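Contributing new records

If you add data, match the layout below exactly. Sequence lines come first and carry their own label; structure lines follow with theirs. Keep one chain per record. Anything else will be rejected by the validation script.
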Amino acid sequence: MQAGKRGKWSQQVTEASNALDLEPGVFTLDDPRAIAESLKRSAESSTRRKAAPFRSAMSMLVFYINRAGSQLDPGQRARLEQAKDELRALYGRPRAKKRGK
C-alpha cells in the first residue's frame, strides 16, 4: 500500500469511525484530561460500538498514536500518553504493570 493511501485510510478511520463519533480536534487538544473526557463522552454516547466504553475509547486513542507514528510531535505524543492515564482514572482502571518488573 502506498504511503499516501495509508495516511488517507487512517485519517478516514479517525474522522469517521463506525464505533465512535469523535469531537473535532480531540487529538490536538493541549490538555490530556480534556482529551480523555472527550473520548469518554464519545464512547459512552455511541450506540454503534462493539466493546465496552473504556475499551472503545482507549482503542481509538492507541490507534491514533500508533498511526501517527514518527510524524507525531513529541509534545503531543506525551500529552496523548498522559491522556491514556487520565482515561484510566476516569474509568477507575489501574495502570497495567509492566511485565518482568
